[in-house]
Amino acid sequence: MMNVVRERIVCEFSVTFCFEEYMKIALVQINPVIGDFSRNSRKILDACHEAQESGCELIIFPELSLSGYPPYDLLERPAYLAAHDQALEHLCSALPEIDVLLGCIEKRVGKGYGKKLYNSGFLIRKSSVVQRIQKQLLPTYDVFDEKRWFEAGNVPGVIECGGLRFGVTICEDIWHSEIDEYNTDPVETFFNSGNRVDCLINMSASPFQRGKESVRHRLFRTVCTRHKVPLLYVNQVGGQDSLLFDGRSMLMDGDGIIKAKARGFVEDMLIIESSSWSGDLHEKAEENSLAAVHDALVMGVRDYVRKCGFRSVVLGLSGGIDSALTAAIAVRALGPENVLGVALPSPYSSDDSMEDAKELAENLGCRFEVIPISNLFNSFKESLCPLFGDTPVAPSDLTEQNLQARIRGNLLMALSNKFGYLLLSTGNKSEMAVGYCTLYGDMNGGLAVISDVPKLLVYELSRYVNRDKEVIPLRTMTKAPTAELKPDQCDQDDLPDYAILDRILELHLEEHLGVEEIVAHGFEKDMVVDVLRRVRLNEYKRKQAPLGLKVTSKAFGYGRRFPNVQNFQG
């Protein structure tokens, strides 16, 4: 009997000792480039050495961090998968003595029905992959399409390190309570199995959108307080095409309190102490929503330009607020020496607008050039006169207005071609939605920086840019918006007031409401019908628009797929 009692005491002492053992964990948010396995591996390896030197026993990286997320149909190319596996093999052989939890592509072993790949987390220990955890919930909505490439896992992933048991989830796995599309809850599975879980891990590539951080906090708080365990959340950072990953990795304790948080929109490492479940707050726990949108756009421009191999950008400066905000973001992202602003005045451009464009460039410190288009405009009209015949060509004619926009687009593209600049398009979401833009004119470009920023948010962001000093001229901020393509033109000649238009568009695009449902919110039916008609008829324009940066819950592009040819009017 004494032996049994003694054995129990030794066993319990051993377990208690493991819990109290001092352990450091590193959460690392890196900015990968999809398909650049060499670069990504160097970032991972450098972080592992830094974490080891800081005394960490475990280092955790985001979802698919070796390949970058999302690789889309590169996953269908055998050469891409082979390069991934080769990079993983080389990386494993070079890793220092530290446990590494790394987001990787896993080939499904065996025959039978199903996709050939898993989206997995690999636990690497002593240069070998010792455990693989497959993502269970595969998002297939909005910008996500993971069921196109991946098979869902069905086994809870628990890893052990330093005497602790970690329940590993991958991005969507923890979102069950927010997304009502799944019939299984990976988090609940951990705790219903009867096995001990001391801490949850979530390896994510979770894109930014305005207000999403507060949703994450609410979700994580629910999980942590329900199960009385801490959560280690590590998220990808960086721009990838339209998607902007904000990082902001964090530790939340079992009471739902954020005890450590990485910076947003930059690479960062958090060191977590498991004995007290604590770390550093590299930024405030709660976000400034407006600052976050600004920083996301700055990061998106910087990453898209640099990752695509460009150094400099060019854009048209009209003296209006859209081009002013775009220029301010570009200068913040790339430096004033890498931004060229060009004014292209027509017969209808006001002196005030040209002065505002010049003042903006001076405030930003970027190069500024002026290319008048009046002679070209007249030449176009003369060339077309024999074909137009007696058809009136008045200043109010859309043909004449679009000619000006297309002349400007051609000249800006010529500068892009000649000097290797990336042309930035400056249209906002409100204009893009209703087609208040010119195909092959002001829509020209390689990146549409604010195409997911509604007009009212453009003004908010511009005030944010001016928070410390006047960067965007005050007159640009206060004058009535106008395209200046005809005499005395104002946007509201053709569009509802932006406060009304933006709300109708939000209800339609982000909340998916139809005519009658929007009218029930207090809007005039004729106006709602007209706005939704414009949205429907201009799908063809948006299909030909440059790629834009996503900052709302529903952006035009990959996450909103509507046919060009359709006649549903509800």
From TrEMBL:
State where L-glutamine binds: Y141, S206, K212
Q: Which family would the database say this protein is a member of? A: In the C-terminal section; belongs to the NAD synthetase family.
Catalysis: reaction(s): deamido-NAD(+) + L-glutamine + ATP + H2O = L-glutamate + AMP + diphosphate + NAD(+) + H(+)
Q: What is this protein called?
A: Glutamine-dependent NAD(+) synthetase
**What organism is listed for this UniProt entry?**
Desulfocapsa sulfexigens (strain DSM 10523 / SB164P1)
Kindly give the InterPro entries that the UniProt entry links to this protein. C-N_Hydrolase (IPR003010), C-N_Hydrolase_sf (IPR036526), Gln-dep_NAD_synthase (IPR014445), NAD/GMP_synthase (IPR022310), NAD_synthase (IPR003694), Nitrilase/CN_hydratase_CS (IPR000132), Rossmann-like_a/b/a_fold (IPR014729)
Look up the record and name the pathway of this protein. Cofactor biosynthesis; NAD(+) biosynthesis; NAD(+) from deamido-NAD(+) (L-Gln route): step 1/1
Q: Which domain of life is it from?
A: Bacteria
A Pfam cross-reference name: CN_hydrolase
Residues bound to ATP: G316, L317, S318, G319, G320, I321, D322, S323, T426
Query: What is the stated purpose of this protein?
Result: Catalyzes the ATP-dependent amidation of deamido-NAD to form NAD. Uses L-glutamine as a nitrogen source.
Q: Which UniProt keywords apply?
A: ATP-binding, Ligase, NAD, Nucleotide-binding
Q: What is its EC number?
A: 6.3.5.1
Query: One GO BP annotation here?
Result: NAD+ biosynthetic process
Residues annotated as catalytic: E63 (proton acceptor), E63 (proton acceptor), K135 (for glutaminase activity), C171 (nucleophile)
Q: Name one GO cellular component term.
A: cytoplasm
One GO MF annotation is:
NAD+ synthase (glutamine-hydrolyzing) activity
- By its UniProt entry, which Gene3D superfamilies does this protein fall under? Carbon-nitrogen hydrolase, HUPs
User: Which residue range or ranges hold the CN hydrolase domain?
Assistant: 23-276
Query: Which residues of the sequence carry a binding annotation for deamido-NAD(+)?
Result: N402, E431, K541
